[in-house]
Amino acid sequence: MISDDEKAKLKFELANANLQSIGRAQGLYVTALLTYICLVWGLFFVGSNEVSVHLGWMDLKVDGVWRITPFVLLVLTLAYRGTVTAAIPAFAHLREAEKELFGSQEQSFFGFDTHKNLLDYLALLQLLPWGKTRKPTDYTEEKSIWRRLPHSILPALFLGSAFTSYWAVRELSRLQPVHRAALIFGWCCFGLQVAYSLRPLWRFLLRFLGAKRTSDVYN
Fold first, then answer.
1. Does residue 184 carry a pLDDT above 80?
2. CA 44, 47, 50, 52: dihedral to nearest 10 degrees?
3. Whole-angstrom Cα distance, residue 74 to residue 82?
Protein backbone atom coordinates (compact mmCIF):
# COMPACT_ATOMS: atom_id res chain seq x y z
CA MET A 1 0.00 0.00 0.00
CA ILE A 2 1.11 3.53 -0.78
CA SER A 3 1.39 5.76 2.28
CA ASP A 4 -0.25 9.17 2.51
CA ASP A 5 3.17 10.85 2.31
CA GLU A 6 4.01 8.97 -0.88
CA LYS A 7 0.64 9.90 -2.37
CA ALA A 8 1.21 13.56 -1.51
CA LYS A 9 4.70 13.43 -3.01
CA LEU A 10 3.43 11.77 -6.20
CA LYS A 11 0.63 14.33 -6.49
CA PHE A 12 3.12 17.16 -6.12
CA GLU A 13 5.51 15.68 -8.70
CA LEU A 14 2.73 15.18 -11.25
CA ALA A 15 1.38 18.70 -10.68
CA ASN A 16 4.87 20.16 -10.99
CA ALA A 17 5.58 18.18 -14.19
CA ASN A 18 2.29 19.42 -15.65
CA LEU A 19 3.12 23.06 -14.87
CA GLN A 20 6.63 22.71 -16.31
CA SER A 21 5.28 21.22 -19.55
CA ILE A 22 2.91 24.18 -19.87
CA GLY A 23 5.84 26.54 -19.23
CA ARG A 24 7.87 24.91 -22.02
CA ALA A 25 4.99 25.17 -24.47
CA GLN A 26 4.35 28.76 -23.42
CA GLY A 27 7.96 29.73 -24.09
CA LEU A 28 7.88 28.03 -27.50
CA TYR A 29 4.68 29.71 -28.66
CA VAL A 30 5.47 33.19 -27.38
CA THR A 31 8.94 33.06 -28.98
CA ALA A 32 7.46 31.95 -32.29
CA LEU A 33 4.77 34.64 -32.08
CA LEU A 34 7.21 37.46 -31.33
CA THR A 35 9.65 36.25 -33.98
CA TYR A 36 6.98 36.11 -36.66
CA ILE A 37 5.60 39.56 -35.79
CA CYS A 38 9.14 41.01 -36.01
CA LEU A 39 9.68 39.21 -39.32
CA VAL A 40 6.48 40.61 -40.84
CA TRP A 41 7.22 44.18 -39.81
CA GLY A 42 10.82 43.82 -40.90
CA LEU A 43 9.66 42.86 -44.39
CA PHE A 44 7.19 45.75 -44.38
CA PHE A 45 9.81 48.35 -43.49
CA VAL A 46 12.24 46.97 -46.07
CA GLY A 47 9.59 48.04 -48.56
CA SER A 48 10.53 45.81 -51.47
CA ASN A 49 8.54 42.99 -53.05
CA GLU A 50 11.80 41.45 -54.26
CA VAL A 51 12.74 40.38 -50.74
CA SER A 52 11.96 36.74 -50.00
CA VAL A 53 11.89 34.53 -46.93
CA HIS A 54 13.37 31.04 -47.06
CA LEU A 55 11.45 28.47 -45.02
CA GLY A 56 13.08 25.14 -45.74
CA TRP A 57 12.27 24.32 -49.34
CA MET A 58 9.81 27.23 -49.64
CA ASP A 59 10.76 30.66 -50.95
CA LEU A 60 8.10 33.17 -49.90
CA LYS A 61 7.87 36.60 -51.48
CA VAL A 62 6.41 39.52 -49.54
CA ASP A 63 2.95 39.08 -51.07
CA GLY A 64 3.02 35.42 -50.01
CA VAL A 65 3.84 36.47 -46.45
CA TRP A 66 0.79 38.76 -46.41
CA ARG A 67 -1.39 35.81 -47.46
CA ILE A 68 -0.30 33.48 -44.66
CA THR A 69 0.19 36.03 -41.86
CA PRO A 70 -3.42 36.18 -40.55
CA PHE A 71 -3.59 32.38 -40.31
CA VAL A 72 -0.13 31.97 -38.76
CA LEU A 73 -0.79 34.67 -36.16
CA LEU A 74 -4.22 33.20 -35.41
CA VAL A 75 -2.70 29.78 -34.68
CA LEU A 76 0.21 31.14 -32.62
CA THR A 77 -1.96 33.58 -30.66
CA LEU A 78 -4.57 30.95 -29.80
CA ALA A 79 -1.88 28.42 -28.88
CA TYR A 80 -0.17 30.92 -26.57
CA ARG A 81 -3.52 32.02 -25.16
CA GLY A 82 -4.28 28.38 -24.42
CA THR A 83 -1.06 27.95 -22.44
CA VAL A 84 -1.81 31.07 -20.40
CA THR A 85 -5.28 29.71 -19.58
CA ALA A 86 -3.97 26.23 -18.79
CA ALA A 87 -1.32 27.61 -16.44
CA ILE A 88 -3.89 29.06 -14.01
CA PRO A 89 -5.53 25.77 -12.88
CA ALA A 90 -2.17 23.97 -13.15
CA PHE A 91 -0.63 26.45 -10.71
CA ALA A 92 -3.63 26.11 -8.37
CA HIS A 93 -3.27 22.31 -8.35
CA LEU A 94 0.44 22.62 -7.65
CA ARG A 95 -0.22 24.94 -4.71
CA GLU A 96 -2.71 22.45 -3.28
CA ALA A 97 -0.24 19.58 -3.66
CA GLU A 98 2.50 21.71 -2.12
CA LYS A 99 0.37 22.47 0.94
CA GLU A 100 -0.42 18.78 1.40
CA LEU A 101 3.24 17.82 1.21
CA PHE A 102 5.04 20.74 2.87
CA GLY A 103 2.32 22.65 4.64
CA SER A 104 1.38 26.25 3.90
CA GLN A 105 3.91 27.90 1.58
CA GLU A 106 4.18 31.35 0.04
CA GLN A 107 5.26 30.84 -3.56
CA SER A 108 4.60 32.83 -6.72
CA PHE A 109 4.04 31.47 -10.20
CA PHE A 110 7.42 32.92 -11.18
CA GLY A 111 9.09 30.87 -8.47
CA PHE A 112 7.48 27.61 -9.56
CA ASP A 113 8.02 27.95 -13.32
CA THR A 114 11.53 26.82 -14.31
CA HIS A 115 10.94 27.52 -18.02
CA LYS A 116 11.02 31.30 -18.15
CA ASN A 117 10.33 33.11 -21.41
CA LEU A 118 10.98 36.64 -22.62
CA LEU A 119 7.72 38.05 -21.24
CA ASP A 120 8.49 36.70 -17.76
CA TYR A 121 11.64 38.81 -17.60
CA LEU A 122 10.02 41.86 -19.18
CA ALA A 123 7.41 41.73 -16.40
CA LEU A 124 10.21 42.19 -13.85
CA LEU A 125 11.51 45.44 -15.35
CA GLN A 126 11.11 48.55 -13.21
CA LEU A 127 10.64 52.01 -14.62
CA LEU A 128 11.51 54.15 -11.59
CA PRO A 129 15.29 54.26 -10.96
CA TRP A 130 14.80 54.53 -7.20
CA GLY A 131 12.39 51.58 -6.99
CA LYS A 132 13.32 48.65 -4.76
CA THR A 133 14.07 45.26 -6.22
CA ARG A 134 11.16 43.05 -5.24
CA LYS A 135 9.71 39.62 -5.62
CA PRO A 136 6.56 39.46 -7.77
CA THR A 137 3.33 38.94 -5.86
CA ASP A 138 -0.20 38.04 -6.86
CA TYR A 139 -1.82 40.88 -4.88
CA THR A 140 -2.26 43.37 -7.69
CA GLU A 141 -4.81 45.48 -5.85
CA GLU A 142 -2.17 46.46 -3.27
CA LYS A 143 0.30 47.79 -5.83
CA SER A 144 0.68 51.32 -7.11
CA ILE A 145 -0.12 51.93 -10.77
CA TRP A 146 3.60 51.94 -11.61
CA ARG A 147 3.94 48.42 -10.21
CA ARG A 148 0.92 47.28 -12.23
CA LEU A 149 2.56 48.21 -15.55
CA PRO A 150 3.70 44.60 -16.20
CA HIS A 151 0.03 43.67 -16.63
CA SER A 152 0.05 45.70 -19.86
CA ILE A 153 2.61 43.39 -21.52
CA LEU A 154 0.23 40.64 -22.58
CA PRO A 155 -2.48 43.04 -23.80
CA ALA A 156 0.20 44.80 -25.86
CA LEU A 157 1.23 41.45 -27.34
CA PHE A 158 -2.35 40.49 -28.26
CA LEU A 159 -3.06 43.94 -29.69
CA GLY A 160 0.19 43.89 -31.67
CA SER A 161 -0.61 40.47 -33.07
CA ALA A 162 -4.15 41.51 -34.06
CA PHE A 163 -2.91 44.75 -35.63
CA THR A 164 -0.29 42.83 -37.62
CA SER A 165 -3.03 40.52 -38.95
CA TYR A 166 -5.14 43.54 -39.90
CA TRP A 167 -2.21 45.16 -41.65
CA ALA A 168 -1.46 41.95 -43.56
CA VAL A 169 -5.04 41.82 -44.87
CA ARG A 170 -4.81 45.51 -45.74
CA GLU A 171 -1.63 44.97 -47.71
CA LEU A 172 -3.11 41.90 -49.37
CA SER A 173 -6.10 43.94 -50.57
CA ARG A 174 -3.69 46.28 -52.39
CA LEU A 175 -2.09 43.54 -54.43
CA GLN A 176 -3.06 43.15 -58.04
CA PRO A 177 -4.89 41.07 -59.01
CA VAL A 178 -7.07 41.02 -55.91
CA HIS A 179 -7.37 37.54 -54.42
CA ARG A 180 -10.89 37.52 -52.97
CA ALA A 181 -10.62 34.07 -51.41
CA ALA A 182 -7.40 35.05 -49.63
CA LEU A 183 -9.02 38.29 -48.43
CA ILE A 184 -12.09 36.52 -47.04
CA PHE A 185 -9.91 33.94 -45.32
CA GLY A 186 -7.67 36.68 -43.90
CA TRP A 187 -10.61 38.64 -42.49
CA CYS A 188 -12.03 35.47 -40.92
CA CYS A 189 -8.71 34.73 -39.23
CA PHE A 190 -8.46 38.33 -38.05
CA GLY A 191 -12.02 38.22 -36.67
CA LEU A 192 -11.36 34.99 -34.75
CA GLN A 193 -8.12 36.39 -33.36
CA VAL A 194 -9.87 39.53 -32.09
CA ALA A 195 -12.78 37.51 -30.65
CA TYR A 196 -10.49 35.23 -28.65
CA SER A 197 -8.36 38.19 -27.49
CA LEU A 198 -11.24 40.15 -25.93
CA ARG A 199 -11.44 38.07 -22.75
CA PRO A 200 -7.72 38.26 -21.84
CA LEU A 201 -7.61 41.95 -22.79
CA TRP A 202 -10.53 42.70 -20.49
CA ARG A 203 -9.09 40.69 -17.60
CA PHE A 204 -5.61 42.20 -17.88
CA LEU A 205 -7.14 45.68 -18.12
CA LEU A 206 -8.98 45.08 -14.85
CA ARG A 207 -5.77 43.86 -13.23
CA PHE A 208 -3.93 46.96 -14.42
CA LEU A 209 -6.68 49.17 -12.98
CA GLY A 210 -6.43 47.30 -9.66
CA ALA A 211 -9.82 45.60 -9.74
CA LYS A 212 -10.97 44.49 -6.28
CA ARG A 213 -12.97 41.48 -7.51
CA THR A 214 -9.87 39.36 -8.00
CA SER A 215 -11.91 36.18 -8.50
CA ASP A 216 -13.23 37.66 -11.74
CA VAL A 217 -9.85 38.50 -13.22
CA TYR A 218 -7.47 35.88 -11.81
CA ASN A 219 -9.53 32.65 -11.98
1. yes
2. -20
3. 12
- 130 in a structural domain: no
Q: Quick one: three-class SS letters along the chain?
A: CCCHHHHHHHHHHHHHHHHHHHHHHHHHHHHHHHHHHHHHHHHHHHCCCCCEEEECCEEEEHHHHHHHHHHHHHHHHHHHHHHHHHHHHHHHHHHHHHHHHHCCCCCCHHHHCCCCCHHHHHCCCCCCCCCCCCCCCCCHHHCCHHHHHHHHHHHHHHHHHHHHHHHHHHHHHCCCCCCHHHHHHHHHHHHHHHHHHHHHHHHHHHHHCCCCCHHHHHC
Q: How many domains does the chain have?
A: 1
What global pTM score does this model have?
0.77
Domain presence at residue 208: yes
Give the domain extent around 39: 4-125+135-218
Would 42 be classed as within a structural domain? Answer: yes
Q: What is the pLDDT of residue 66?
A: 83
Q: Are 77 and 193 in contact (CB under 8 A)?
A: yes
* CB contact at 8 A, 80 and 24: no
